[in-house]
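Weekly modeling sync, notes
Attendees: S.R. (lead), two postdocs, one rotation student

Agenda item 3: backlog of single-chain predictions. S.R. asked that every request posted to the team notebook include the full sequence so nobody has to chase files. The rotation student volunteered to paste the first one in as an example of the format we agreed on. Action items at the bottom.

Example entry:
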Amino acid sequence: MSDEPHLRFERDGHLAVVTLNRPEKRNALSSEMLVRMHDAWIEIDSNPDIRVAVVTGAGGNFCSGADLAAMAAGHPDDEYTRRFQQDRDLHWKALLRHFIPGKPMVAAVEGYAVAGGTEILQAFDVRVAGRSATFGVAEVRRGLFPLGGSTVRLSRQIPYTVAAELLLTGRFISAEEALAVGLIGHVVPDGEALAKALELAARIAANAPLAVQAVLRSLRATRDMPERVGLAYELEVGSPVFLTEDAMEGPRAFAEKREPEFKGR
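Predicted structure, as returned to the notebook:
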């Protein structure tokens, strides 16, 4: 059994790289992993130096969902279980059900992203997968319910009839099918998902962070609003961006034929 933490959190400039790290279990969710996921999301959200986050899995898989063997055995009385007792909402925030950082979230998927793996994926803004990646929400096959948000989110992101079929049959789909229905945005050769995700994240991080965060906030919030309500919200969120220092730096850099130096102010 590995002594490594069940999640690795690393920084690369303005990027945060989060790696789910139980490769021997296809990165199945453990109490420790969930607590560390929660703490990573809070750090990403609150740290102004972090502009974008990339999340991937170790050992050639993204996440295979709950650790069913551990569920059957019961959770040990350890520091991670006690964290859940202190915050009854912690696991929902860890699963990106009740909390999503206000920074762009980029997923780099290889191998299995099933059950809870596909559930958390739906909270990501940009999604890249290796060609052999596998997706699906198979809880009904185990007598369970996908409480990570899939019965609400999935049909808002892919066609209703496809979402219904996946949720009710529990069947898995390939990366190519996931791309075709819009669950992911890129399919790359196996082993290259992280590199592509980091490339996209770097392009996002190079932009003005306040503008990016405002665009993201409006994009997420207005998806299910009536158009008139959404347009009003867009004005509320977007107008203050024009008063920032970065909004002056961008046009100035363009006029001076140089790259802008955005400060997040």
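Discussion: group reviewed the output briefly. The chain has twelve helices and nine strands.
Action items: rotation student to repeat for the remaining queue; S.R. to check formatting next week.
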